[in-house]
Write a structure and sequence with these properties.
Protein Transport Mog1p, Chain A; 31% strand; 6 helices; 220 residues; alpha+beta; seven-stranded antiparallel beta sheet
Length: 220
């Protein structure tokens, strides 16, 4: 009986945190964003949304890190939506971009029918091929790559997406971030959805991020 009481005492704080997180996600005010008539998503109304200039500056800075020689003057893309849970030291960063990388839903679905495990293995191998450059770039930014990768194919916004998940360090030296990239092939381009959440904030912010992802509707 004493062991059972001890287990209940240990479990109660976790349950209370989970209930509080769920309640917080439900009581927040949300706003809908429509991106080029292609993607709709709802995010908390109080979150900070970077304007076009801010998104372009971030893209240019990232591009400079990727190519320190300066040979490529224009970024390959900048996000159409960049939302932060707070303007300074955000615990969640959510972005949606349209990237000129070809690939189709039909090709992905065909690959899954042939072999789901082989498809996930191909995603993992493709990620590892670019890992050295990614790690070097993150180190230059002061947020080293920490690994702990996960790969999958999931449904999001009514489409199939290749999921690449990994951890990176926090710029300020705090709890690391788990970055979840959803690559949605759409024919001539792909929609890249990125949800990064700080480990220490996951119990409270996780349900909010889940609600954001569940709200996605991808038209084309």
């Amino acid at each position: 009986m004493n062991h059972r009481r001890t287990l209940l005492q240990l479990a109660l704080p976790l349950l209370l945190t989970a209930f509080a997180a769920s309640a917080k996600a439900e009581t927040l005010q949300y706003q809908e964003r429509d991106l080029s008539g292609r993607v709709k998503v709802t995010i908390p109304s109080h979150w900070f949304i970077r304007d076009l200039a801010g998104r372009q500056n971030i893209a240019a800075a990232a591009n400079a890190v990727l190519d320190p020689t300066g040979k490529q003057s224009e970024p390959t893309h900048y996000s159409s939506l960049s939302a932060l849970s707070t303007r300074e030291s955000p615990q969640v960063i959510f972005r949606i971009s349209f990237v000129q990388t070809p690939g189709s839903q039909a090709d992905l679905e065909r690959s899954l029918r042939h072999s789901r495990s082989a498809t996930i293995r191909e995603i993992s191998e493709a990620h590892k091929q670019g890992l050295d450059q990614m790690d070097e770039s993150l180190r230059r930014l002061g947020t080293p790559y920490l690994g702990e990768e996960r790969f999958d194919v999931v449904d999001i916004g009514g489409k199939k997406a290749m999921l690449i998940s990994y951890k990176r360090a926090d710029l300020g030296g705090g709890s690391p971030f788990r970055g979840n990239q959803y690559h949605v092939p759409m024919g001539s381009d792909k929609i890249l959805i990125t949800a990064s959440i700080q480990d220490s904030a996951a119990p409270l912010m996780g349900p909010i991020v889940e609600r954001i992802l569940a709200s996605l509707v991808i038209h084309r």
